[in-house]
Write a structure and sequence with these properties.
Number of strands: 4
Largest sheet: 4 strands, parallel
Shape: globular
Strand order of the largest sheet: 2-3-1-4
Radius of gyration: 15 Å
Strand content: 5-15%
């Protein structure tokens, strides 16, 4: 089992490198070693230290690594990224979409101002990663259409 972790850790380090992270920050270097073992984690570091990438790059790498396996298990949202407010969604989206699209993963945003057309698109063709706010998440949890899509969530990142 240890060798599979080592291989996945290398994939994650390669992803950081591919995304132009020549040298990892302390939190980035410590966190992926825990996340690769799929452990619940709390990442604590100063502002600007790379916490977002510490969480999302390993998760994206693992989601992409899972793509080839039992794809029927993944017909829904696999990662929820919860930002404290809608204004942060767009900043995080720009960064996450860059990392995710290079791995052929889909990312969408859902918040209070998301149009019906966009929400319907999410229901019909769920993204791998959904960025949302706590308020929108509360609504999604009781929404009949979203319930089946949320059963496939494997990762929740709360910013």
């Amino acid at each position: 089992m240890k060798s599979s972790y080592t291989q996945l850790e290398r994939h994650i380090l390669n992803k950081f490198s591919k995304e132009s992270f020549a040298k990892l920050t302390s939190i980035q270097n410590q966190s992926f070693k825990v996340l690769v073992r799929r452990r619940d984690s709390l990442l604590v570091a100063p502002t600007g230290s790379g916490k977002t990438e510490s969480a999302i790059i390993p998760v994206i790498t693992m989601l992409a690594d899972d793509e080839g396996r039992e794809s029927s298990d993944f017909e829904g949202i696999r990662c929820l990224y919860v930002t404290p407010q809608r204004s942060l969604n767009n900043d995080v989206f720009r960064r996450i979409i860059k990392y995710a699209t290079s791995e052929n993963l889909k990312v969408e945003i859902r918040h209070g101002d998301t149009s019906y057309t966009k929400r319907r698109k999410i229901y019909q063709n769920p993204p791998d990663i959904l960025i949302t706010t706590p308020e929108s998440l509360a609504i999604m949890l009781v929404n009949e259409k979203m319930g089946p899509l949320l059963k496939t969530v494997r990762w929740v990142i709360i910013d």
